[in-house]
Each structure stands twice: as structure tokens, then as C-alpha cells.
Design a protein that fits this description.
Elements lengths: L9 H9 L24 E5 L16 H4 L5 E5 H7 L10 H22 L3 H10 L17 H7 L6 H7 L3 H13 L4 H21 L5 H25 L8 H14 L9
Antiparallel strand pairs: 1-2
Helix pairs in contact: 5-9, 5-11, 9-10, 10-11
Amino acid sequence: MGDLARQYKPSTVKKLFMLSGNQCAEPSCSRQLLAKDGESIVAKICHIEAASDDGPRFNIDMDDDERRHFDNLILLCDEDHTIIDNKVNEAKFPVLLLKEWKKNHEGKLLSEKLRNKPSLLKDAINSIANINWDEVEEEVSLSSFNPKDKLNYNAVKRNVSLINEYKSYHGKINSLYDEIEKQGSFKKEKLLNNIRFLYVKIKGKYVLDSEDELEIIKSNSDNIIDDIYDEIYAKIEETSSFDEDIMLAINLIIVDAFMRCKILEEPV
């Protein structure tokens, strides 16, 4: 136990650093995460709930994929990482406090990034809409559900906080879709069809020929969401116009697509 929990996906590490602002996530700390040479990394990836059973805030009910997931990791300076992971200090730094640090720190950086680069969401929409998957069929249904109902129905766990955090961008994304449609573009439909196609494709890898499709989806709902992100990111990364900042906007688009029922199953 614990080895896989420390095998971070490259996309997870990139996202942690891009949302760090080169600063420790401990609210009162002003230390930078790059050394004075501007090259050497002095940041430490800290598990909010420990990677192994001898660590602080260990949660026996988590699996290693949940322990290494972006939602359970926070980027700190070496000193704060040492303090927070000291078992003597465990009661001073509970899970809820560290999650609040992470939410506030990364939320502030994402807001700043979107404010400083207003085209970022639109660029992400264009990039995903321009992906050419084979045999994408047109989807006409754009029904939506209460996110909480859909999260419960699909048994989503580790992506709950991500969806709850990013669902607030639904209105902004919808306004962008309206703006794009007024220009006579069908990018909204193309994007949503692309995401729906990818969901069906990835779902099929888990379900195979199982007779109980819904239970398999529920058991793998978080993996499916993560796989969709990874495949979209990998596809966009191949393009000559790739802008790494787009990776921060992909999750916003995916959460919006989740709310429009292009990802996972509709509650019945």
C-alpha cells in the first residue's frame, strides 16, 4: 500500500504546478516553489489524506487511485510539507482545513488565469470542437440534471469536489456557446458530440459485455471522468497550436458537459 499512491500522473503534476502560482498553498506562507535559480523545484507534493497507513490523516476507505488523485494533493514548500506531515501535528492540520487551503489557493489562481487570458475558455472550446474522432454521431439531446442527483446516481466520489467547484462556470460557458452560435458556428454541437462520443468509447472499455452496465459504470465513474480528461488533453497536446494553459480550462468544459448529460448516465 502506498507505492501507487505516489505514482502521480504527469497531467496531475502539471496541473498542480500550473495552479500553484509558484507559491506554497499554506495561506500565510510567501515561499516560492522554484529556487532562486529559477530552475530547481523546491516544492513538495503533499497528500491531504496520507499515501500510506503510517502517514497523517490516513483514510482506510480510500484506494490508491483516490490517494494520488489531484483532489487529494496539495503543493507546499518543503518546510510546510514537513510540518503538516509530522504526525505530532496531525490534529492541527485536519483534512477539511487542507482542502480549504487547496480550494482557495487554486481557485484564486484559476480566476486570475481566466481574467488575465479572457480567451482561454473560448480557446478550449475551439480546441475540443476541432478534435476529429472517428465515427462521431450527432447527439441531439441536451437535457441537464441537478448535479447532486447525477453524482449520486453514478456513484461519483473523488471528482465530487471538482464538479462542485467548477459547476459555477456553467453560466459563463453557456454565454460563450450563445456567442459562438450567433456567429453561425456549430462548435457547441461539435464539442458536445465529441465529448459524448469519447464517453461512450471509454465506457465501453469498462463495461465490455457485462449484463449490468450501470453497476460497472458506477464502479468506474471517477476513472471514466479522468480518462476523458486525459484523452482530450493528449489529443490537444498533439496540435501545433497547443497552449498548456488550455489544460486548466478542459476540466471546466468537462464539468459543463457532465451537467448537460454528455458524460455518465442520466438519473431515472
